[in-house]
Amino acid sequence: MDAEESIVKKQVSTTIYPVLFALSFSHLLNDTIQSLIPAIYPIVKDSFHLSFSQIGLITLVFQLSSSLLQPLVGIITDTKPYPYALPVGMGFSLTGLVMMALAPSYQWILVSVAFVGAGSSVFHPEASRMAYVASGGRRGFAQSLFQVGGNAGSAIGPLLAAMLIAPFGQFNVIWFSAAALTAIIILYRIGKWYKPKSIRNYILRKHNVKEVAKQILPRKTIVTSIIVLLVLIFSKYFYLASLTSYYTFYLMDRFGVSVQQSQIYLFIFLFAVAAGTMIGGPVGDRIGRKYVIWLSILGASPFTLALPYANLFWTAVLSFIIGVIIASAFSAILVYAQELLPGNVGMVSGLFFGFAFGMGGIGSAVLGKLADNQGIDYVYHICSFLPLIGIVAALLPNLAKRSH
């Protein structure tokens, strides 16, 4: 029996790299599709004669359709596994993508992005849970690898949009249906691995093992920590909304670059975000997630404060540095929260992904209104102070020491 138990422990704790890489690649495809939404803003703004407020509303509809459903999806899948939820969710994204390509009006654009958001609401909490299961204990690494796929997709999307959509028009969005179909096939295969007869669940059920969630901190400390983490998510995603939604407009307005040139600069920033995401998780595994969270948000503030005063070259340099630093936070925040509430991985993943999406959407809408009233430059001056909120990370307990 001892030998059998050691086999169980070994298999449960093994990092399953094929699943992690498949999840990361699926995340790349999913977020490539999502990144088309801000990438086509200049096109739909001219086609439908939209204001910045209306552009912000597109982001708000997308983000809210995703964020409001994600915690619910996480709670449901905490109680009962739905291994094929991921390909079904991607089917919603595919539907939204086709509708976006064919949309004849602003109202249809809003409906199409709501479908893409609904697909995202299923993908992120469920795929994050599967990454947690496949991590073999290397949770920070697993979440970073999963996240970097999404960030890479967010970076590739605008570049592909600059080559395939900006020169030829909105209808060419339809070509990205191939990415959604590819993701559906991959996610179906992952679902086969994750279904109840999968190796991990089979071993747990065979030996009648139940995972017991242990709270390592008092309830009051956990609640306070969750609130602090959500405040940090607010500061991070409100600031990122200014760059992901309005960076191209800022560059065109202030420096007179073309739409295609602005998409290339957006790609550089989003590439930096992907690099920072890959750094944050493994570093958090080694030195403690609290320090990564603290440094990655507060540490970006000197660069965000300098950005509104920089020329075009230094704007590109500073945005790259900001992307690397500030992006390293999310994987560490998510795993930190999962370790605070170890029996509720789906709910925690849904809550934090949903809140991040919601803050990005609300931030985009608020900043769009501000840009209409005060100008795009004013937005970047105001947002430059947001990373200073990162100082509240000092209130977080050090889970690394307590876990040991």
Structure, explained:
This protein is an all-alpha fold. Helices cover 79% and strands 0% of the residues. It has helices spanning 2-12, 17-39, 41-47, 52-67, 70-79, 85-102, 106-134, 139-164, 177-194, 199-206, 219-255, 259-287, 289-298, 301-306, 312-327, 329-340, 345-374, 376-383, 399-403. The protein is globular and about 55 Å long. The two termini are 27 Å apart.
Short description:
This protein has 404 residues and is mainly α. The chain contains 19 helices and no strands.
The shape is globular
Helix content: over 70%
Largest sheet: none
Query: What's the count of strands?
Result: 0
Write down the secondary-structure element order. HHHHHHHHHHHHHHHHHHH
Total number of helices: 19
Q: In percent terms, what proportion of residues is strand? A: under 5%
Averaged pLDDT: 80
Draw up the topology in text.
Blueprint: H1 2-12, H2 17-39, H3 41-47, H4 52-67, H5 70-79, H6 85-102, H7 106-134, H8 139-164, H9 177-194, H10 199-206, H11 219-255, H12 259-287, H13 289-298, H14 301-306, H15 312-327, H16 329-340, H17 345-374, H18 376-383, H19 399-403
Helix pairs in contact: 2-7, 2-8, 2-9, 4-7, 4-17, 5-7, 5-17, 6-7, 6-9, 7-8, 7-17, 8-12, 8-16, 11-12, 11-16, 11-17, 11-18, 12-13, 12-15, 12-16, 13-16, 17-18
